[in-house]
Amino acid sequence: MKIILLGPPGVGKGTQAQKICRDYNAVQISTGDMLRNEIKGGTELGKKADEIIKAGKLVSDDIILGMIENKLFVKDKPVNYILDGFPRTIPQALGLDEMYAKYGEKLDLVLLLEAPENLIIDRLAARRSCKVCNQVYHLVNMPPKVPGLCDKCGGELFQREDDKPETIKNRLKVYTEQTEPLASYYREKGLLRTVDSTDSPEDVHARIKKIL
Ligand code: AMP
User: Is 18 within the bounds of a domain?
Assistant: First the structure.
């Protein structure tokens, strides 16, 4: 199972990726998490990415494609995975297609998660993430059992710098301009299915399961 989760920031890609992975024995590949780990580790890449992420812009296609090739085809080589937050531009999608051709593999499905913009803004503003394991919470809809602490690992929860209102606007603009065209790209290939993501995470997951 090789699936891309497409959709604007805050639509619930991370949450759904975790649920699919739990039910289908797949791994979540989040380029955002990979970049945040680089930042945490204080690497050269992390230093470059930090500024870009804080501004709500995109990290360069070359860097992202290099990270993905290493993860999917060279180092870990997972069989079942959910791509969350990648690809985000047409050049990234083309680069991924080239890799599938080069390594003799293929993509199974692209799920486009959709929700109205006001709901997305609310979800981003109320999102909290675990500093240790990246588990995601929503202060109202999916709160942790103990305020401020992760249910899974006890790690401290924090608000991502790029989930603050000034940056959210920019990220949504970048999504519309650079990522939304991917829906037509995959629709033309016959790989795209849309999923209404306005309801609770469980309802959305049930819809996804029907498709899978
Ligand atoms: P995410 O956790 O997917 O919302 O990603 C957080 C930030 O990391 C994005 O706003 C971008 O700055 C950067 N990023 C993550 N994935 C990509 C990607 N595929 N291409 C470019 N930048 C990315």
Answer: yes
Q: How far is the CA of 70 from the centre of ligand 1 (A)?
A: 17
Find out whether the beta carbon of 179 lies less than 6 Å from any atom of ligand 1. no
Q: Which CATH number fits the domain that encloses residue 32?
A: 3.40.50.300
Four-point Cα dihedral 135, 57, 95, 34, nearest 10: -30
The predicted model scores a pTM of 0.92
Q: How far does residue 58's CA lie from ligand 1's centre (Å)? A: 6
As for how many domains the chain has, the answer is 1
User: Among the atoms of ligand 1, which is closest to the Cα of residue 33?
Assistant: 2
Encode pLDDT of 131-164 as tens digits.
998 888 999 889 999 999 999 999 999 998 889 8
In a domain, 74, yes or no: yes
Note down the domain range covering 86: 2-116+179-211
- Residue 84: which of 23, 141, 15 has the closest Cα? 15
